[in-house]
Amino acid sequence: xxxxxxxxxxxxxxxxxxxxxxxxxxxxDAAKHLQIEFPETIISLREFGYPDEDIAxxxxxxxxxxxxxxxxxxxxxxxxxxxRLLEPYVKSNARIARNVRGGAYQSKFLRDLCQSEELTAAIxxxxxxxxxxxxxxxxxxxxxYNPKEVGENVDKWHFDTLRIDFVMFVTDPYSVEGGEFxxxxxxxxxxxxxxxxxxxxxxxxxxxxxxxxxxYAVLQQGNMVVHRAKGxxxxxxxxxxxxxxxPRDVSFPDYTRFDxxxxxxxxxxxxxxxxRHVSWMGRELLxxxxxxFEFSEDTAKMAENFEQVAEMMAxxxxxxxxxxxxxxxxxxxx
Length: 334
What we know:
The protein is α+β, with helices and mostly antiparallel strands. The chain has helices at residues 30-33, 45-48, 52-55, 73-86, 103-106, 108-114, 117-127, 188-196, 258-264, 267-291, 299-321; strands at residues 42-44, 62-65, 68-69, 99-100, 131-133, 142-145, 155-158, 164-169, 181-184, 206-207, 216-221, 227-229, 239-247.
């Protein structure tokens, strides 16, 4: 099936129970709150050690950036205000002690920031491929808060349940001790083998980008980059925000770890959001055939197009039937 730039999927109009809307929050204004400065350094997946066949399954060869600015000072202050308003709704899972997912349902500021056309265009330019804000709302504006216990890591070594995302500091990283964001300059298969063999990660490959302040971020192809967030070494406040994107070219294989999302998000929402996401992809793939209609005798190609959609739907159906059978995946703390 030929590449096709999908139309965006609007945020759900139905408001779910258990996600009360914030009152008295700031109003997002891209002109005032964004101050995007493009990163100076981009490390490719090839530099991580990935072979061509793995890279071919990705929408781009982009791996990770150095730290770059997203929010203005005013925007960072507003984002911190919103994060603190959402903190009473923190939950935990087997990987992260304190986080808020689904905040885009509660905060219009967060939702408008995460779906900002200006921000999406900039992130697309950095990656070198057209993107859209993630079509699973729980992948928009995920917030991580430091654990109450000093020394406990914010997040364990892992790779993400989505392709493209940025990790942005909401609090000032220089106001606390510890809490570094780290990534491993190697493949996830390498990390998995080291863990299987009971060996430590190569310390020379553990990188900690230089942090610059609140409103600054690292952009990564999250399902390919193994990373973590270290714990604080002294009591303080550390908050980061993670925003996800999907390739606008829906001919790329979908990478949505529903088996993992079902374990950390409300089950009815994880299942419904995933079903909606897959339905959108299926619709957009079929739209390529309608918009690109021409008379042809190439029945093999026509069959291949239908098989691609059918395979995606069958994969999603199997994932839904197996919901709850998996375990939360991570590589641990060390």
